[in-house]
Write a structure and sequence with these properties.
Belongs to the 4-hydroxybenzoyl-CoA thioesterase family. This is Thioesterase family protein. By secondary structure, this protein is of the alpha+beta class. The protein contains four helices and seven strands; from the N terminus they run βααββββββαα. It has a single domain, classed as Thiol Ester Dehydrase, Chain A. Strands 1, 2, 3, 4, 5, 6 and 7 form a seven-stranded antiparallel sheet that branches.
Length: about 140
């Protein structure tokens, strides 16, 4: 299983009235991790969009374990949890400065045509990308 790691400095603007990272910001950090994973595997989501293909989130699951606070460094670990050639499930662990799990999550994605939003088979659109995802996914 291939795992990418992306460090993110927690900014003051990302915290809430309680002084902890606002819960929705973890979704943004997951996107940062997912984009880094795709790039490290040799592909580009921007290129996919140029082809008229989008990859919307169709399901998300987040478990908040420990708070992250302003001034800490979050480390986003991202991997391919499951992949079947049509739907991709990305897994995430976001660690705090002490290396402890702060958040666990998963997002599920499919590919759709930008204009019609008709679902498309990823493995047929991008056969090379498909092969890499098959090798990189969690066994």
């Amino acid at each position: 299983m291939y795992v990418t790691k992306k460090e993110i400095e927690v900014r003051y603007a990302e915290t809430d009235q309680m002084g902890v990272v606002y819960h929705a910001n973890y979704l943004i950090w997951m996107e940062v991790g997912r984009t880094a994973l795709i790039q490290e595997l040799g592909f580009s989501y921007a290129d996919m969009e140029k082809d008229g293909i989008l990859s919307p989130v169709v399901d998300v699951n987040i478990r908040y374990v420990k708070p992250l606070r302003y001034g800490e460094t979050a480390v986003v670990h991202t991997w391919i949890e499951d992949y079947n050639g049509f739907k991709t499930v990305y897994g995430y662990e976001i660690l705090n400065s002490n290396g402890e799990i702060a958040v666990k999550g998963k997002t599920s994605h499919i590919c759709v045509d930008r204009d019609s939003f008709k679902p498309l088979q990823f493995r047929k659109l991008y056969p090379e990308w498909h092969k890499v995802y098959e090798k990189a996914k969690k066994n």
